[in-house]
Amino acid sequence: MIQGAYPNTRPRRNRFDAFTRRLVAEHRLSVDDLIWPIFVCDGENIRTPVDSMPGIERVSVDLLDAHLAEAVALGVPAIAIFPITPIDKRDETGTESANPDNVMCRATRRIKEIYPELGIIADVALDPYTSHGHDGLIENGYVVNDRSLEVLVRQSVNQAAAGVDIIAPSDMMDGRIDAIRKGLDAAGFVDVRIMSYAAKYASVFYGPFRDALGSGGLLCGDKKTYQMDPANSDEALREVALDIAEGADMVMVKPGMPYLDIIRRVRDTFSMPTFAYQVSGEYAMLAGAIERGWLDRDRTILESLLAFKRAGCNGILTYFAVEAARLLKAQ
Ligand code: PBG
């Protein structure tokens, strides 16, 4: 062998065996990183599959006990509840969002009874409740900002009163974090946290979620006048800065996998607890390929979630949460 003809520095040495790889691993996924989004509906003993999300179901409140048992047993720290509102309870202004007996509130009270330690995150936006499927109120065909804020504040206080721990505004109206923080404080909910969907993009990847909620077919037009343009990155930092200044305790980037660059910039710039949402369309892509045998199930789930940790996330909202927790436990 000719001296100096071969490399002295060999990055492969640190990959030589499993124990060395474990020692040098920079990031690790744990059950503490997982937030499980669930779809909850009215009625009794109902479980209906979401066609575009293989393996995901809408469940009625009475079945939550069994539905959440494994997540709780595995130590998943929190769930995010999404309500299905039947068409006859939807209207132009999303009145049902302020009903103390709506599905979201009933689910929250039930879960707090049976699993008091499980964190509950509630989405705040009007799209589950409006007949037009938009996240705010519409005037002359435009989703108006300031009047929408009043409705969003009422929705937030209603959810906090039912026992929600973390309010997660996903509506992208300007000034909502400030308005909601003040509203919560005035109602005495000073310790209820706000996880803001701070950089939320107008994305095609929400399609299966809208199918799950039944708001996809209702949606008139698109959400480009309030959700962000996928072309933008600096704008995400301005959005996040505003939400932090207005009182957000945690910030979120959404969607997830196509926006890992945004997560990294947000984490580096603000050092805030940073979350990402691996959204329904991402789940559909992966679950669809897994179902066909094109991707290995376990490795796909774990690698896709580890990527979020590497990008700078403290936690991930993922429909794979329970399966990931199961895999992590078995490791
Ligand atoms: C509601 C909301 C949406 C999602 C979370 N909250 C849809 C939307 O903005 O149209 C999407 C989640 C997913 O796709 O999994 N504002």
UniProtKB/TrEMBL annotation:
Record-linked InterPro entries: ALAD, ALAD_AS, Aldolase_TIM
GO BP term, pick one: heme biosynthetic process
PROSITE patterns (UniProt xref): D_ALA_DEHYDRATASE
Pfam families, A to Z: ALAD
Catalytic activity line of the entry: 2 5-aminolevulinate = porphobilinogen + 2 H2O + H(+)
Binding-site residues for Mg(2+), renumbered to this chain: 239
Origin superkingdom: Bacteria
GO cellular component: cytosol
Enzyme class of the recorded protein, top EC level: lyase
Keyword Lyase: yes
CDD domains the record matches: ALAD_PBGS_aspartate_rich
EC number in record: 4.2.1.24
Catalytic residues in the record: 200 (schiff-base intermediate with substrate), 254 (schiff-base intermediate with substrate)
Stored NCBIfam families: PRK09283.1
Family membership: Belongs to the ALAD family.
Subunit structure: Homooctamer.
Name the UniProt record assigns to this protein: Delta-aminolevulinic acid dehydratase
Organism: Brytella acorum
Lineage of source species: Bacteria, Pseudomonadati, Pseudomonadota, Alphaproteobacteria, Acetobacterales
Gene: hemB
